[in-house]
Specification:
alpha/beta; 6 helices; homodimer; Rossmann fold; about 30% helix; 10 strands; 2 domains
């Protein structure tokens, strides 16, 4: 596929939205044509407005069911002729109505090296587990919780004095780099979802870019 | 703790044993004083013999039970006054008799970034899962399967054309670097098992060495 109009779903601060907007302004990513939020007045909405991108709060409580809310999201995205959907800190599982309408065209970023630490508070989970490496993952979204096919991952060190906050901040830096890059690969058709896997069009060596370890500290 | 005599348990090729032997010869690690194998004639045994390290096959079938085999291992290690036990590709769960006698003094290396991909064939699991980052983990051994407290991890990229073999080889390079380093930290008392966690004596910045990402490929 090639995509020309990106929709972004948000719930919170919107720093990943900002990274996508910047990449789009630089010409590295197609137009961000719509931003939808499930949280009224979230910072991400005002960032979108500052960037003069159409942005709207869709109230989950106004929908009679989870499915109906998903259908409302899908309808808004469809009306705006969105062909790639990026979940940028969207704190809600998306369901079949949206996933079927945008099959293979919904991406999420998660702050761990999946399959480790799916679900909420991944940096907190990583600190509690005592791991020494964590990172972030961009993946195609399926109906599970952070289970979809992996597109790209970046690793970061976990330091001994890390808190949830300090680790989350280190991972977030990589998210801001990785999400626009991975979204661009999907938008350009370099990688696509096929039979539940990420399939790459380009030669394998191209995809070495799919990992980045930002620092090397040798024992 | 500080350790002065290391015992190594092996089952197979013994390339991690070789890395430990080299580190010991360089003076980076205490003496490797005993090598025990649960597989007759494995390559690791001949490597130990070439290095003139006492090495012995202990036949699991000669032990009436799993516990009895564990007790036999513990007895041999105890007789050799071993104070740090390294599992270097030892394809067998070690049980309470050994873990109690060598509490906090048994280390294992596993070819994944735990908690991802515990158990057998970790590189195969990683390739099948389609992740883009994997690595290896040195951890204190507990009674679970690859569940003990993490000491050190190193990350490697997974490339799109990787097979189980090519990924395992890339991870193995890091194992050879990481295992001697982590064993030395434990032997010098820089890190110890306390209440199920790896506790570091040295200031946090010292432990940045606990991660290494061998390459940086930026998208």
């Amino acid at each position: 596929m090639t995509a020309s109009r990106i929709g972004v779903l948000v719930s919170g601060n919107g720093s990943n939205l900002d990274a996508l907007l910047s990449a789009s302004r630089r010409g590295d990513l197609p137009e961000i044509a719509l931003v939808l939020a499930n949280v009224a007045g979230c910072r991400a909405l005002s960032r979108a407005e500052e960037a003069r991108v159409p942005a709207r709060f869709l109230d989950p409580r106004a929908a009679p069911s989870r499915e109906a809310y998903d259908e409302a999201l899908a309808a808004e995205l469809g009306e705006a002729r969105i062909d790639l959907v990026c979940l940028a800190g969207f704190m809600r599982l998306v369901g079949r109505p949206l996933l079927e309408r945008f099959a293979g065209r919904v991406l999420n970023i998660h702050p761990s090296l999946l399959p480790a630490f799916p679900g909420l508070h991944a940096p907190r989970q990583a600190v509690a587990a005592g791991v020494r490496v964590s990172g972030c993952t961009v993946h195609f979204v399926d109906a599970g919780l952070d289970t979809g096919a992996v597109i790209a991952q970046a690793a970061v060190p976990v330091q001994l004095d890390d808190t949830e906050e300090s680790l989350a901040a280190r991972i977030l830096e990589q998210e801001h780099r990785l999400f626009p890059a991975a979204a661009a690969w999907v938008a350009r058709g370099e990688v696509a979802l096929e039979a539940g896997r990420a399939r790459w069009r380009s030669p394998p060596q191209r995809a070495e870019g799919a990992i980045a370890c930002p620092r090397t500290d040798r024992p």
